[in-house]
TrEMBL record:
Domain GGDEF residues, every copy: 201-336
Lineage, uppermost ranks: Bacteria, Pseudomonadati, Pseudomonadota, Gammaproteobacteria, Lysobacterales
Biased composition range(s): Basic and acidic residues: 322-332
Pfam family, one: GAF
Organism, scientific name: Cognatilysobacter lacus
Cited CDD domains: GGDEF
Positions of region (Disordered): 322-343
SMART domains: GGDEF
Protein name as it appears in the record: Sensor domain-containing diguanylate cyclase
């Protein structure tokens, strides 16, 4: 008994995956109970079917992947009748296909549970009569518990990893507009600058300031102001290509990064600046509140060979300031596209 417990402890501590744990445990179950085969079943993707996920077989011939209707399994019949250890199974369970097909004479089954839910079943099968010894009852129960506890631990680890990934995503996104935030934008810009130096592509970088944001906040309140930012973010994002990046880096400030062909960079800069400026002149219906945007100040520059993140952002910032001064010197007209619907 002591050797078996030590072996179990070694298996559990050394397992890195479910398969690492289950396969040697099934082999141990066969040798401990005197059964010819031990298998772990789980619900199949097809409704109402049970699938053999893992098997250690020493003579019966059951293959992994075998699917059987749950209602036709020895496990369900045993659970329903409260007979988890059955000798001469071919007689009381003779109507079941699997008992007839594999000439099963002795059968033991234990549910594998995780947090009270049945994950699958652990089964031992033999074509011979196997005496109901202490080991024949003890081993399946202990092994089923170990598999269930391991599965629960793996589930917790997956939940933890998913939570960490979600937190990492949240940390890199602006919580209001769901656009990339300042940190993510800087990391992306650094990578794209290196990419343009390596591949000889052009890169446009620009700031977009919503000059009307303060007046919207003052006139309609903070909630409408937030809805205005979200609506404008969606409008600007929809105006860009999938390869372009739009991020929010301040209360009323966005940044755009757009890769372009080097030979077409100047024309692309003019087109993108004009397009974003016109798209920012609009009106939104924000839950019944009409909010007009007179436009944004768009400062766009081309990244130069050898530019650092700080250098290209400084030039884009200066271009944005120049665009703001120019806007103040001329009246703004509502975009010919008309009002846009916001959220």
């Amino acid at each position: 008994m002591g050797q078996r417990l030590a072996h179990l402890a070694e298996l559990v501590s050394g397992a890195r995956t479910g398969e690492d744990l289950v396969r040697p445990l099934l082999r141990l179950m066969v040798h401990s109970t005197g059964m010819q085969a031990a298998l772990l079943t789980e619900p199949d993707e097809s409704p109402g079917m049970q699938r053999v996920a893992y098997v250690h077989d020493e003579g019966i011939g059951i293959a992994e992947g075998l699917c059987i209707p749950w209602t036709d399994t020895l496990c369900k019949r045993a659970f329903d009748e409260g007979r988890l250890y059955v000798q001469c199974a071919g007689t009381p369970f003779a109507d079941l296909w699997i008992a007839r097909e594999y000439k099963i004479r002795t059968f033991v089954s234990v549910p594998v549970r995780v947090d009270g839910q049945v994950l699958g079943t652990l089964c031992g099968l033999s074509q011979h009569e196997v005496a109901k010894t202490t080991n024949a009852v003890w081993a399946p129960d202990v092994i089923a518990r170990l598999i269930g506890e391991f599965a629960a631990r793996e589930s917790l680890l997956r939940d933890y990893e998913n939570t960490q990934q979600q937190l990492a995503t949240l940390v890199r996104k602006d919580p209001l507009t769901r656009l990339p935030n300042r940190e993510y934008v800087r990391e992306t810009l650094e990578r794209m600058l290196a990419w343009t130096r390596r591949d000889g592509m052009g890169l446009l970088v620009g700031f977009i300031d919503l000059d009307d944001f303060k007046s919207v906040n003052d006139r309609h309140g903070g909630q409408v102001g937030e809805r205005f930012l979200v609506a404008m973010a969606e409008r600007l994002r929809a105006s860009l290509r999938s390869a372009d990046l739009l991020g929010r880096v301040g209360d009323d400030q966005f940044i755009v990064i757009a890769p372009v062909l080097t030979g077409d960079a100047r024309r692309s800069e003019e087109v993108l600046r004009s397009w974003l400026t016109r798209r920012s002149v609009t009106a939104f219906d924000l839950d019944g509140v009409q909010v007009k945007s007179e436009g944004a100040s768009v400062g766009l520059v081309q990244a130069q060979p050898g530019d650092s993140v700080e250098a290209v952002l400084a030039r884009a910032d200066a271009a944005r300031d120049a665009a703001r001064r120019a806007r103040r010197e001329r009246p703004q007209m509502l975009d010919a596209g008309g009002a846009a619907s916001g959220h």
